[in-house]
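Hi R.,

Here's the chain you asked about this morning:
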Amino acid sequence: MSATRYQVTCDGGQIVVVTDHQQAQTARFHAIWLRDNAPDAETRSPLNGQRLIAITDIPDDISVASAQIDGASLIVGFMPEARSVAFDLAWLFANRYDIAPPTGQRGRVDSQISLWDSGLADDLPQDIVARDALLLRAMGSPDLRQIDGMGGASPLTSKVAIISVSSSDDADVDYLFAQVRVDQRVVDTAPNCGNMLAAVGPYAIETGMIAPQGDLTRLRIHNLNTRTLIDSQVPTPAGAVAYQGDTRISGVPGAGSAIKLGFLGAVGAKTGKMLPSGQVIDVIDGVEVTCLDSATPVVLIEAASLGWAGNEAPAEMDANREAMARLEQIRLKAGELMGMGDVSGSVLPKPVILSAPRTQDGTLCARYFVPHRCHGALAVTGAITLAVATSIPGTLANRVALAAGTLAPDSLAANVHLEHPAGFLDVEVEHANADPMTPSRVSLLRTARKIMSGEVFLNLPRLGGNAWACMTRQTTALASARGEEFVDRQRAGTAVY
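And the predicted structure, written out as tokens:
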């Protein structure tokens, strides 16, 4: 083998770049991926290849101290472990994860080793009943504890995103969100989820659906729930998704790199109308409300109308059974006014309680319901709808902001600072022709962090072939159903970040 065939460089101690001049190809490998896949005897049994360590055994500050070519091997030195490991170069290139599969092929480059899998939507059962049965089983529903599944015993952590290459010429990726009920055998694809949406861009890039574009990769996401488009901007310095950053989201531990989501033409996402009832104010059971649909249908209510101050803790609101019962009755009747029919079995529309802000920079104070429990923060789609409503003359959001002096009369709210139980959320609103009824783009910042990738085996009737879904607890993991007993297994190529 020619000594000059391969060339290796190390980027900042985290990324090893190997060039094969003979094949005219370059591969990139992250330090933690290399360490996790080390073929040495301390990492894997020489008898059967069984993993001897868990990903959590690897130091958080693992880095590459040195990398050099030795014949057909790449010798990598790791710090702080002071360990050197030899990787077969042919194996590395065969199992690389940084490129899309060959043209005409979907899914993994190799069927056994991958960080993230891109074959999702097409591999799920096409029959909706079978698909929903799979998702319910994967999340462990119906069960308030969701012990036998991936769910976290909360509506906020029982969500699914189904991803595929877009069927639309106007978008790069299709995204279908599914809310899996915790306590009922229900999978609801009527709503949307902006927090889940934040993970779609990084996922699409890492699976090769979208090629990185310099330091910032921009992609267009087609939301199948609402048939709307979202512009996602993902930091990709040196051609790789950046998860580390200093952007902090209220209610979310830690910090991450900022992902900017721009919602395009989010008017009448479900009903086709900004004001589905045709009025800025409706009266339901003696209570003034605003029924509005932008990104998601909501019914806006002033806190005082239900005897609340508006800044109560979620648990305090949930415990007020009388007010919660009135809220549900208003929601059900609002659904009828909005042309949505009987919404008793749906999570839409979402009630939002409004009051004056408590901070100097605040525009509104909001409590968002999902719909039978108060949200611990504020849903992205709810925030978008509320920000849009603030500029529309006569809506409750507009009236509360004007009364609080946080919006100037006859002006548009371009930057809306929304207070919620966990802190705040900032939303930027752009209007076409200065018209409050035509928001052209609504943007906000989110973060997303890769937690894990792997397989979940489900004890289900045969569905035919493999079934893959993109699971997440506010980020993304992978699940597979093959009619087998639930098995927790760590596969080669998986990594936790």
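The first strand starts at residue 6 and ends at 11.

Let me know if you need anything else.
M.
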